[in-house]
Amino acid sequence: MTNPIAVFLAVLIFSGLAYDLIWLDGQATLLLARKFFQLVEWVAFWR
Question: How far is it, in rounded angstroms, from Cα 39 to Cα 32?
Answer without folding.
Answer: 10
